[in-house]
Amino acid sequence: MGSASHDSINSRLTAALREEAARLGFVACGIARADAAPESAGRLRAWLADGAHGDMLWMETRSDERAAPAALWPDVRSVVMLGMSYAPKEDPMRLAGAADTGRISVYAQGQDYHDIVKKALKALARWLVEAARRDPAIGGGVGVKVFVDTAPVMEKPLAEAAGIGWQGKHTNLVSRRHGSWLFLGAIMTTLDLEPDGPHANRCGSCDACQRACPTDAFPAPYRLDARRCISYLTIEHKGPIPAELRAGIGNHVYGCDDCLAVCPWNRFAVAAAANRAFVPRAELAAPALDELLGLDDAGFRQVFAGSPIKRIGRDRMVRNALIAAGNSADGALAARVAPLLDDSAPVVRGAAIWALARLDPARFADERDRRRTREEDATVREEWAFSALPCAG
Ligand code: B12
Ligand code: SF4
Questions:
Q1: Residue 270 CB: number of other CB atoms within 10 A?
Q2: What CA–CA distance (Å, rounded) separates 77 from 132?
Q3: Under a CB-based contact definition with an 8 Å cutoff, are residues 289 and 100 in contact?
Q4: Are 208 and 149 in contact (CB under 8 A)?
Q5: pLDDT recorded at residue 1
Q6: Per-residue buried b or exposed e for 174-199, using 16+ beta carbons within 10 Å of the residue's own CB
Q7: How far apart are CA 374 and CA 199, in angstroms?
Q8: pLDDT for 139-180, tens place per residue?
Q9: C-alpha–C-alpha distance, residues 85 and 193, integer Å
Q10: Structure pTM?
Q11: Residue 263: strand, helix, or coil
């Protein structure tokens, strides 16, 4: 086949692919060659070598595959990168400092995006296989694989290479039209599709996201130390939250959007109200801290069914709510905190100690004298000792 006819098949197919992607709810669609982001391999290795991934050991285990699509799937030729908008209607910063309310990051206030994006990706991949099969010049035999988040694929650099946005200084992909609020998904294929060029970086001299981070998680622009990131600490990290970072967490109880929310490119983003799956559920948009503190396993499962939050389990959510309670300066919450000193999970007992020390120092001193020597768990005993210090955390 001559290159002219190959080009015209390609343009016809990619134009139809973009239309189908839009019909399925993707607001952004771009194509990159599978080897289009070669610099990301070295950057990933440097990030892992620094230990910036904390205890996300799954980032290490298949890092060669993560570093290059061809290592994951040798037959891959092109990657179709897709973005689905979850731009919020309300300012995610509006609850910053609200004493009685926790903050759940925007991406987790509606249905689980893994389910929604994957379903649309699978439908688009099926469409692509079918369109290629019908095209006599291609004639079938096309391979496809779909990915959203959970596989070893570096979605952000591939999305930048496919032209749908650029990696901002906060490291997430920013789009001129949708700001920081895109979920990403990928379709890898054996088809040689016509690639789009990479997107130019538009951050300029802005550093709003770097200054907005409450826990100082950016050692440099474009570099995130996950160990200090509130998203990592509240979602991925299982043990006690390091004492020196607790105050910075404020009232974040699941994830954090502070670096995304301040990005000036968000002013062009139109709220994703059309995507009903991502409309916030009322109880997740502004959860009352006293209700979160009262959750047992069954209650947790009921409230967070169908949400990505269910993955962290009740203990981690109550741990997070206790940190937010400790930061609230709302003495009334001490009555909800104190019963959690008897919780069966050490991570909950430890966070309850810290919160009580901040909300009701007299009661804390009283409880400490009675409980400290009885405590069996070493990390919880440390909390009793540490939280007694006048400026703990
Ligand atoms: C691990 C992970 C996390 C970790 C680590 C985050 C991180 N920045 O890596 C934690 C738990 C902290 C996290 C948090 C969040 N995550 Co996350 N996460 C991932 C995951 C699974 C892998 C990311 C990865 O490969 N990290 C490895 C490091 C090395 O990559 P990187 O930070 O992008 O590193 C690049 C830069 O350092 C850059 N670089 C280095 N030096 C330089 C210099 C220059 C000049 C330039 C230009 C670039 C550059 O090069 C590296 C490679 O490109 C992806 C899904 C996926 N499979 O891709 C989702 C993903 C990135 N997460 C996502 C989301 C939504 C979030 C949160 C917003 C959730 C929340 N609200 O709490 C936060 C955002 C925090 C932040 N500012 O990053 C989305 C982002 C969508 C988008 N528009 O970009 C993704 C793509 C999931 C999805 N499918 O939609 N996440
Ligand atoms: S806030 Fe500024 S520096 Fe950060 S991603 Fe947006 S434009 Fe880039």
A1: 14
A2: 15
A3: yes
A4: no
A5: 38
A6: bbebbbbbbbbbbbbbbbebebbebb
A7: 60
A8: 778 999 999 988 999 999 999 999 999 999 999 999 999 999
A9: 24
A10: 0.95
A11: coil
Q: How far is the CA of 273 from the centre of ligand 2 (A)?
A: 24
- The residue type found at 73 is W
Q: Are 65 and 40 in contact (CB under 8 A)?
A: no
Q: Which atom of ligand 2 is nearest to the CA of 207?
A: 3
Which residues face 33 on adjacent strands?
78
First to last CA, the chain: 68
Shortest-distance Cα residue to atom 8 of ligand 2? 203
User: 28: which strand partners?
Assistant: 83
- Residue 316 to residue 235: CA distance in whole angstroms: 8
Residues with CB under 6 A from ligand 1: 40, 43-44, 47, 59, 105, 107, 148-149, 153-157, 167, 170-173, 182-184, 201, 222-224, 226, 229, 231-232, 235-236, 255-257, 259-260
Listed as ranges, residues in the chain with pLDDT below 70 are 1-9, 272-274, 388-393
CA dist 152 and 162 (Å) reads 18
> Which residues contact residue 158 at a Cβ distance below 8 angstroms, ignoring those fewer than 6 apart?
32, 36, 37, 69, 79, 81, 186
Q: What is the overall mean pLDDT for the chain?
A: 94
Kindly tell me the sign of the dihedral angle through the C-alpha atoms of 11, 17, 23, 29: negative
Residue boundaries of the structural domains of the chain:
3-189, 215-249+288-387
The DSSP code for 286 is: S
Please choose, from the candidates 213, 225, 234, 172, the residue with its C-alpha nearest in 3D space to the C-alpha of residue 52: 225
The single-letter code of the amino acid at 244 is E
Cα gap 322→346, rounded to integer Å? 13
| Alpha carbons 74 and 365: distance in angstroms, whole number | 62
- Per DSSP, helices labelled H in the chain are 3-23, 39-49, 58-61, 63-67, 69-72, 113-134, 155-161, 208-212, 230-231, 243-249, 258-261, 282-285, 289-293, 297-303, 313-328, 334-337, 346-359, 361-371, 378-387
The token pair that represents 195 in the structure block: 């690639």
Cα–Cα distance between 327 and 250 in angstroms, integer?
Answer: 6
* In the block, residue with structure tokens 């290629």: 132
Cβ neighbours for 36, distance < 8 A, ≥ 6 positions apart: 79, 158, 161, 162, 195, 198
What pLDDT, on a 0 to 100 scale, did the predictor assign at position 393? 52
